[in-house]
């Protein structure tokens, strides 16, 4: 019976169970949903139906209370959900609470507290260095191999997959321009990233150790860090990206719990420089994740960035972000930074794929250097799961709308 | 009768009426308070006592609902409060609802949404340029006169005045060090700033025009953007400040409404470069504010930065921050950037006051280059008010606590 008769190897089978927030047609009520195949289970209603103690955590309009509940609760709730979708008597009782995905509206699944973006792919950083500083002796800045470089972004413009992105306007100035000009960005780009969602908070003054990553981070999502390269180039010295990034950041509607990704854990690339103790993960469990990302423009795949190549892990990023005593809040979101593998077809931005517009991408509907109005960018990903199955990540998609 | 028998010219008289959030001894209940002299009026209880329609807006544990209510409500509530503290019959009825300031605990008065920090003082930017790039032809970066440079900071570590600040630890690397070292910051600094608090939100894709500043911004506060210069110097290329700033940002407990500062409005410094239309304030009402700031370490005044010297106004900063379509949320906070006047005694950071540690400051308790453990930094300010009165801003103070 649907939704349980999934095709073998469905990447959203009972081994996955990502969380989202949805509403039904004609209703403004937001509910926590759990995805199974192409259906959404109304998790709060399911908990009530089965008399589960998790009805309070799941009967909410946002994931934040569940995120705040902590690692033990996350595991307990997941164990319960697994039983609900696999034990025949439960399945039967819950069947009316499954809604076909196309029939529901998906919302931003949690309230974003602080948003931080990192810069953790060595291939990406080297490509960017070669493009913007071709004469530098080293394409990496001197700090790059010693700490995961990051900066704060705008949490108020994090939007859920499917939200249109209006082409941002702003100042740009080519080296040959006598003065900056104002107008819609002419170098609108994507950045294929993975976002990590913090559940358990930490108090000010208490750094989070590398080994405590899984106590604090609930799960991950795909993230598109839309970037206006022309705005960014003119504004970013000396205080970093601002308007070139703050117009929109898209995240997938589904948060995949770390518990669904145990088989995807891999050792990160060999560390070429000694690390300070708070970042040294040589003795830790593998901190990388083998996520195979695919980036498509208007349905045409342009890149397949491999997350396993990231130099800095999410655990290292969390340890670094808090080593100065900065607190964590439930709902903090941090992006991995653009994921780029060593091969050309593994680059996670148009900046790299077209070498800052020098080259063009051939799409079925024409050439591209940067994004055109109407372009739809969609990122998908999967990870190795139990028994050869794949764990699907929710897609993140967005369409570029012309500036007014 | 107290609290109404204020000394003549009290900077917290009925012409001021800043808003805060307080709790009474032995109670966890947070209440909106309005300051009159050295007393706090329980504003929600006052509204109930007088049967005011604003009891719902004022009977809250945070200012956010009032901030969200918009300009007309702000003016109406202020008019009501003015009557409550000046009309004798109201004063008599409300006398039991005034609490001496020392008897209450003050809290962060609003929930911070996004926090942005600017870099708007030309004197500060030139000083920093000369210190860090002594060989550059121009101490300002090429973009400085064309746009208000800003970046996002960490909203989760914005704390109320009086909160201790633990000395942050992190990586630093002097040019002569072969590799970075880890430890407590040895160049812990202050930045004297003014923070602007957004009330009325704006939707994504809709820039806020210069002239709409007062529709969106409710008021201002003093802000100390604590900065670990050694951490910052090593990390900030190419993506800007991160851990050097994110450990703590202190704001005053009192938010002064813009309506209390009409007499303090001044024309900003002459613009030396033509501005793009969205930033051109030549035809706008004066966008500067004449705020006289004082910075003291352990009670000894070290600097008196004049806010009227800021090149970029808060209205320009708001227009810039949203020109790419970024939305505003109620509770967004943005800092002016360090306020430094042209004179040595007007510099708003120790970095500038000691020229990056080359010089020392003589304090009664010894010399300083940067902050020592136990140092208490206190910023106060006033502005010209009606009829020669001063409008006091709430102080922002914080004590440095040794790293663990």
TrEMBL record, chains A, B:
Cofactor list: Ca(2+); Mg(2+)
GO MF terms held by the record: fumarylacetoacetase activity
E.C. number: 3.7.1.2
Domain Fumarylacetoacetase-like C-terminal: 116-400
One Pfam family, short name: FAA_hydrolase_N
UniProt domain Fumarylacetoacetase N-terminal: residue ranges: 15-109
Keyword annotations: Calcium, Hydrolase, Magnesium, Metal-binding, Phenylalanine catabolism, Tyrosine catabolism
This protein's pathway: Amino-acid degradation; L-phenylalanine degradation; acetoacetate and fumarate from L-phenylalanine: step 6/6
Main enzyme class: hydrolase
PANTHER family documented for this protein: FUMARYLACETOACETASE (PTHR43069)
Protein name: fumarylacetoacetase
Organism from which the protein derives: Streptomyces flavalbus
